[in-house]
């Protein structure tokens, strides 16, 4: 079994996953995931955790039969399409990408990418982090402390991808 990527309309990920669950033979796939991340939002002066799509418009499916799954998906225009350049039209999630995804979302990609706790210097710059962001601190290209996120440029999917990491300060009450 390996992980593959499917594209769907952003905002319709849940609907696409439901269609896959209802219409495609379960022997062709093991797991279908919509990867989520946690973000803090301030409401009435307090921070609350919100969940958002980590990669809007994409689903990740674990299968041992990508060609047969692609054939099944081709039968309906409603279904999301597997991405890829191979003759079967499928794209396997590469090992380096899977390492990032597992670090962020767990071995079976079942968890939300959690908030990273950051330490900030006297100039207001993020200098250290605990959590998924820690490995990518040198790649931070934008930070918004007030809005509790940073963006880091991460090598993913054969290109550099700007990934939004939800953050919290040690003193934040969540």
TrEMBL record:
The keyword Transcription applies. Pfam families: NusG. Gene3D superfamilies: NusG, N-terminal domain. Residues 1-99 form the NusG-like N-terminal domain. GO terms for biological process: DNA-templated transcription elongation. InterPro entries: NGN-like_dom (IPR006645), NGN_dom_sf (IPR036735). Keywords: Transcription. This is NusG-like N-terminal domain-containing protein.
């Amino acid at each position: 079994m390996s992980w593959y990527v499917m594209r769907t309309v952003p905002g319709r990920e849940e609907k696409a996953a439901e269609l896959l669950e209802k219409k495609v033979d379960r022997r062709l796939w093991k797991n279908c995931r919509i990867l989520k991340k946690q973000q803090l939002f301030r409401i009435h002066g307090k921070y609350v955790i919100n969940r958002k799509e980590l990669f809007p418009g994409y689903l990740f499916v674990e299968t041992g039969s990508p060609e047969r799954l692609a054939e099944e998906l081709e039968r309906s225009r409603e279904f999301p399409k597997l991405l890829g350049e191979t003759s079967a039209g499928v794209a396997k999630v590469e090992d380096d990408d899977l390492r990032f995804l597992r670090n962020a979302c767990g071995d079976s990609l079942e968890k939300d990418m959690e908030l990273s706790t950051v330490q900030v210097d006297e100039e207001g710059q993020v200098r250290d982090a605990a959590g998924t962001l820690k490995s990518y601190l040198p790649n931070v290209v934008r930070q918004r402390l007030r809005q509790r996120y940073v963006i880091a440029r991460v090598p993913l999917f054969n290109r550099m991808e700007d990934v939004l990491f939800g953050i919290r300060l040690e003193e934040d009450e969540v």
